[in-house]
Amino acid sequence: MHLELSEEQFRRLVELVYLGNWMANAARDQSDRIVAYEELEQYILAHSRDFSAEDMVEYDEENDTYYVRQDVEDKLMRLVDEYEDESFWELLALRLAERDVMEEVGPVAAFTTTMHEKRWELADKYGEEFEKYGLRRLRVVEGSQRRKHKQEK
Q1: How far is it, in rounded angstroms, from Cα 67 to Cα 69?
Q2: So which domain of life are we looking at (predicted)?
């Protein structure tokens, strides 16, 4: 198979391959890394000269390894930071909502449609809270205090 790319398309491919490999491997131990992704990234980066993209990539002869240049990585990490920030708030709201639903209904084998709806409703409320106040009003309360407060209502 032969794939033709413009220089601009190749530059975007370098960015996407870097981001994909970073997402897949950044949190992994060296022994657990997905080598196939690293190899594909190396293959793509090795062709940077063919697409006039040497300004995006540097080669370390000692390690026989290509790297995305620091300025490119910095630009791409801003995208990662935006994604992580948005994901943090969404996951926090969803996990708190799941906890609240489980506290309300007790242990169950699987979520029902009603429970899913309640979870999303609560997640939306948490999302609004976090959007307005961030973490300022989020507190860890000892387990018995939360239950007592709930019973007093």
Answers
A1: 6
A2: Bacteria
pTM for the whole structure: 0.77
Token representation of residue 149: 């407060």
| CA 103 – CA 122 distance, rounded (Å) | 13
- CA-to-CA distance for 34 and 41, rounded, in angstroms? 11
Residue 137 identity (one-letter amino acid) = R
Token pair for 47:
């062709």
Domains of the chain, residue spans: 7-68, 82-152
Which alpha helices (DSSP H) does the chain contain, by range?
Answer: 7-25, 35-46, 70-105, 113-133, 143-152
Coil, strand or helix: which one is 93?
helix
Q: Render pLDDT for 13-69 as a digit per residue (tens, 0 to 9).
A: 999 999 999 999 999 999 999 999 999 999 999 999 999 999 999 999 999 999 999
Q: Number of helices (H) and strands (E), helices first, in the chain? A: 5, 2
Averaged pLDDT of the chain: 92
